[in-house]
């Protein structure tokens, strides 16, 4: 199992792509979010991932920097289906608000011959808080993160030997989410900026947290490996070093601050 980080930045970055990633396992792909546009297609190509091999997509919430790339994926998947270049069906998982929005946008923005495949071969699958589904041979449990901005889900995926990979979306892990994140072998968590630069970037007013707080959470929940993403992009050249230095003060596990297109072997 491995993760390819297609993007690592927050909504307004220009020096990297918005946060989204692919979990590769047993020859299959699970795409999580799509970033803010068709640059997702470029990132997939740069990562060497055939988009026609992606059959499972999860959308955390409706914000532009997460959902628009998924609409592009729906378009190119339906086009490939019509050309006979896509084998099997495709599945987009999310809560009802996101699925209704995707359906509405697809009907308005994707040409009819492609959009008609939605519901026939491209399936919009509603998931509910605490629901577990088998995806790619793994049990994946979805949970409501309790966002106050827009309804948002995270997920917890089983790994080998009873391990688990948990994604908390793009907000600080809530008390409800801690039950899923606790004891994770791998935890993916947002960190908008350094704690030392909180006055510069104002993470709290945007319902985000800092490296310090994400690391304190992971330490308290006994996480083994912590991946920080959804960051600012003002100093990408030194981001990895600076975030690692601050994080090491609060987290004793393995800390990862990936760049765009970096691959993490789980």
> CATH-wise, what's the superfamily of the largest domain?
Ribonuclease Z/Hydroxyacylglutathione hydrolase-like
- Which stretches are poorly predicted, pLDDT < 50 over at least 5 residues? none
Helix-strand makeup class = alpha/beta
SSE run: EEEHEHEHHEEEEEHEHHEHEE
The helix count comes to: 8
Question: What is the level-2 CATH architecture name of the largest domain?
Answer: 4-Layer Sandwich
State the major sheet: 7 strands, mixed
> What's the CATH first level of the largest domain?
Alpha Beta
Terminal CA distance:
6 Å
General form: globular
Total number of distinct structural domains: 2
Question: Would you report the number of β strands?
Answer: 14
How does the SSE layout of this entry go?
Layout: E1 2-7, E2 20-25, E3 28-32, H1 39-46, E4 54-58, H2 64-83, E5 90-94, H3 96-109, H4 112-115, E6 122-126, E7 132-135, E8 138-144, E9 153-158, E10 164-167, H5 175-181, E11 186-190, H6 198-201, H7 211-220, E12 225-229, H8 236-247, E13 254-256, E14 263-265
Parallel strand pairs: 3-4, 4-5, 5-6, 10-11, 11-12, 12-13
Antiparallel strand pairs: 1-2, 1-14, 2-3, 7-8, 8-9, 9-10
Structure notes:
With 266 residues, the chain is α/β, with parallel strands linked by helices. The protein has 2 domains: 1-126, 4-Layer Sandwich (Metallo-beta-lactamase, Chain A), CATH 3.60.15; 129-258, Ribonuclease Z/Hydroxyacylglutathione hydrolase-like (Metallo-beta-lactamase, Chain A), CATH 3.60.15. Helix content is 30%, strand content 26%. The protein has 8 helices and 14 strands. The chain has helices spanning 39-46, 64-83, 96-109, 112-115, 175-181, 198-201, 211-220, 236-247, and strands at 2-7, 20-25, 28-32, 54-58, 90-94, 122-126, 132-135, 138-144, 153-158, 164-167, 186-190, 225-229, 254-256, 263-265. The chain has a 7-stranded mixed β-sheet. The protein has a 7-stranded mixed β-sheet with strand order 7-8-9-10-11-12-13. Helix 2 (64-83) crosses helix 3 (96-109). The longest helix is centred in the first third of the chain and has 20 residues, at 64-83. The protein is globular, with a radius of gyration of 18 Å. The mean pLDDT is 97.
């Amino acid at each position: 199992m491995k993760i390819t980080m297609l993007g690592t930045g927050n909504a307004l970055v220009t020096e990297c792509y918005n946060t989204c990633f692919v979990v590769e396992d047993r020859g299959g792909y699970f795409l999580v979010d799509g970033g803010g546009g068709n640059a997702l297609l470029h990132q997939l190509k740069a990562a060497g991932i055939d988009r026609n091999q992606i059959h499972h997509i999860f959308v955390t919430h409706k914000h532009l920097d997460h959902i628009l790339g998924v609409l592009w994926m729906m378009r190119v998947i339906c086009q490939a289906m019509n050309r006979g270049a896509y084998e099997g069906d495709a599945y987009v998982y999310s809560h009802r608000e996101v699925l209704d929005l995707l359906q509405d946008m697809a009907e308005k923005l994707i040409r009819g011959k492609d959009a008609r495949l939605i519901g026939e071969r491209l399936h919009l699958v509603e998931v509910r808080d605490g629901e577990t589904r088998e995806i790619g041979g793994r049990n994946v449990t979805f949970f409501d993160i309790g966002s106050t901005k827009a309804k948002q889900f995270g997920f917890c995926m089983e790994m080998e030997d009873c391990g688990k990979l948990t994604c908390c979306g793009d907000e600080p892990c809530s008390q409800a989410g801690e039950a899923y994140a606790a004891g994770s072998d791998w935890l993916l968590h947002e960190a908008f900026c350094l704690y030392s630069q909180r006055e510069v970037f104002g993470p709290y007013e945007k319902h985000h947290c800092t490296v310090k707080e994400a690391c304190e959470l992971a330490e308290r929940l006994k996480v083994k490996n912590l991946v920080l993403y959804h960051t600012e992009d003002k100093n990408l050249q030194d981001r990895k070093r600076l975030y690692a230095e601050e994080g090491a003060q609060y987290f004793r596990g393995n800390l990862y601050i990936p760049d765009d297109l970096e691959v993490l072997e789980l």
